[in-house]
Specification:
Length: 153
């Protein structure tokens, strides 16, 4: 466990580590189909995060990214196939961060929030736009801002 999570209960820390998986599934499945290009982008981004993320988040992403592709596959099976039901469940889970982020160091919480939103945007851009790059489809645009998570700043 990273030092920033020591004040959290184990279920809260587990949810924090699960956030990249939940965001990936939410965004990739927003348009009724869990898009392979978006899932591939999620895996790629999570492989790079330990080196590319802000220094304060690198240890977090190292731990959260362990066996990330396997975690995605397993977690997808735990949620309903119907998009609306799946998105509602994931949104509720992500909404629980509103009780957890205030327990963390504010600087860490703000960087975490910004980083998770960046992850969502990168996944959403993986299958939209010209030749599949740099644009977000309508369905993804409805969830990419992760409005269920309040900005901790």
């Amino acid at each position: 466990m990273i030092p920033e999570f020591e004040a959290l209960q184990s279920e809260e820390a587990d949810l924090m580590y699960k956030v990249p998986v939940l965001v990936s599934i939410l965004i990739a499945g927003a348009d009724d189909e869990i898009d392979k290009s978006e899932m591939k982008e999620a895996v790629t981004v999570m492989k790079l995060k330990p080196q590319k993320a802000r220094k304060e988040l690198r240890e977090y992403y190292t731990l959260a990214g362990e066996d990330f592709e396997d975690k995605l596959k397993i977690t997808i099976q735990e949620y309903p196939l119907k998009t609306a039901e799946r998105n509602e469940m994931i949104s509720e889970e992500l909404g629980r961060l509103n009780d957890i982020l205030p327990k963390l160091d504010k600087g860490f919480a703000v960087k975490f929030y910004e980083s998770v939103k960046d992850l969502a945007r990168k996944i959403a851009e993986a299958s939209g736009g010209v030749f599949g790059f740099m644009s977000v489809g309508f369905e993804e645009s409805q969830v990419v801002d992760l409005k269920m998570i309040k900005d901790p700043s």
